Amino acid sequence: MTTSHQYNYQDFVPTDALACPICGVTCLSLQDLNTHLDREHSEEDSKGALLSWLRNAQKKVSTSLITTSGPKQWVDLSNNPTFFVSDNHTAQQSEYVTRDHWQRETGNDKCAIQGCVRTVGRSGAGKQHCRMCGRLCCGVHTQYEIKLSRQAKHDAENGIWSKVCMECYVGREGYMNHQGVTRSKTDILLNKRAKIIDKVHLESNRLEKRLEKLARIHLSADNSNERFIHNNSNNVLLSPSSSIQSVSLDRADSVSSMDSSLGSVLSPKSSFVSNNNSILSMKLKYRDGEQSVTKWEDDKLVKKCPYCESTFTLINRKHHCRLCGKIVCGNTRCSKMIPLFIDMSSDTFDAEPVGDTRACCHCIRYAFKRKLSNEQTQNVPVIFRLYHQLSITRRAIENQLPKFHQFILALEKQKTISKTSESFIKATQIRKSLLDNFALYDTLVKSIKALPARSPCMKRLQTNICTASNIYLQQNMLPLQMLPRILKDKPERKQLLTQLDTFIEQSNLIEGFICDAASEGRTDDVKTLKLSLQELQHEIDQIRSKLD
């Protein structure tokens, strides 16, 4: 059965007076000591002093903490030097960041932040020194941290995280930079891009050379076939009966040879291939030469098209790309018949092709890259040319509008506007130029809208351009209406002066009537005449304000 031990809190409280471990001031109780430490030494490095004081306190109370049921438990503070320090950054700040510039306390210090009326260290306001500027601030305005060097200067790379006031946090270098940190990757991009461009150029040059070889093969095969036909035509009689007899003999020969192999019949060297079947014979003649340009893939190894993944069947036949040797299908998105040119060094397609052959989409893009790029540069679509002119006109309008606004403001400030003044003449010239540019702008927009749309994307592009242009015209043509309004004819000064003289004469007459009525004692007439005199005086003041 375990016995419970009763501990008295007073046994652990020192009976002697307590001294501050930092400055040595005598305190009556632990509460007084804590209050003294909070007020006088809240920002000082009290680590060493606190540890020494706690070691002395441990020696006094360690004997009372021994339990009878277990061994003695000792706390070695030397092995845990930072056990009682709640903020590691404070130790680093105390060790590295200087405090020579700190503001000295007077006991009634206000927060240094402009607009803050808190007294630091009282009523829960808190008290902190800004590590950067050294001023005393309340706890609300010192909740920021930046990296400072030992000299209390901002050092974002090698500094130590330190508490600073709001003004130092906002005013540090780079805080108002909205772009942020940027690192230029242009050199890396250019290096990688140059390698890829070189690779593309090498691939394009290689395919162009292959196209030239194929063109020469086709040209030589065509020339030999023409010579063969020309020689045979000299040995054949031109009578109709002989022609019919030759055709019947060819048919009889072809029927009698059905047992022979298909390859021997369709061979270009076979005597059974007539001149009427020259297309097939020419294709077979081309094949040997085309296979010498690049190695063809084996038909048995390829089951699907590498581009559209369609399976080869009796309907979907296999075709070899004559430039790379790949097996592709006959879909126009995968392979096409392309023209053959003897000279691929030219940038245009003006030369007459000597024949055609099949190539995959990948090889077509690289083989004709230079020619297509040059053609696209020379043959710019109409909508691009119109939009380019539209952009030029818009820049001209935007350059003239600020000048026109300045002249309008200057004319509005003038009391009298003369049509012969320099400001009026310049404003009129700019207005005329703006009207011409706006008319040209509107014409270009209508031309873009009237273009035939070949696709939904092109139609949407035209609609967006027209919508944005109409909004631009509505927003910027309004100031042009201000000049005629300013130049509207105002009441003539002479007419105003005439009215003023008339009202003054009437006012003098009414004043005389008032004097006569007052002398005769007619009070009702005096009141009526005074009201009329006030109305006349009001009209006189208005006319004088217009004349001023």
Please give a quick description of this structure:
By secondary structure, the protein is mostly helical. It has 16 helices and 10 strands. The strands form 5 sheets. The chain has a two-stranded antiparallel ribbon with strand order 1-2. It has a two-stranded antiparallel ribbon with strand order 3-4. It has a two-stranded antiparallel ribbon with strand order 5-6.
Any overview of this molecule?
It is built from 16 helices and ten strands. With 548 residues, it is mainly alpha-helical. The strands form five sheets. Strands 1-2 form a two-stranded antiparallel ribbon. Helix 15 (493-520) packs antiparallel against helix 16 (523-547). It is flat, with a radius of gyration of 51 Å. It starts with 17 loop residues before the first strand and ends with a helix.
Q: In percent terms, what proportion of residues is strand?
A: 5-15%
Taking the sheet with the most strands, its summary is: 2 strands, antiparallel
- What is the radius of gyration? 51 Å
Mean pLDDT value: 75
Could you say which structural class the secondary elements and strand pairing correspond to? mainly alpha
The ordered string of helix (H) and strand (E) elements is: EEHHHEEEEHHHHHEEEEHHHHHHHH
Tell me the helix content: 40-55%
Q: Which spans of ≥5 residues are poorly predicted at pLDDT below 50?
A: 65-94, 236-277
Number of helices: 16
What is the CA-CA span between the terminal residues? 112 Å
Overall morphology: flat
User: What is the β-strand count?
Assistant: 10
Order of strands across the main sheet? 1-2
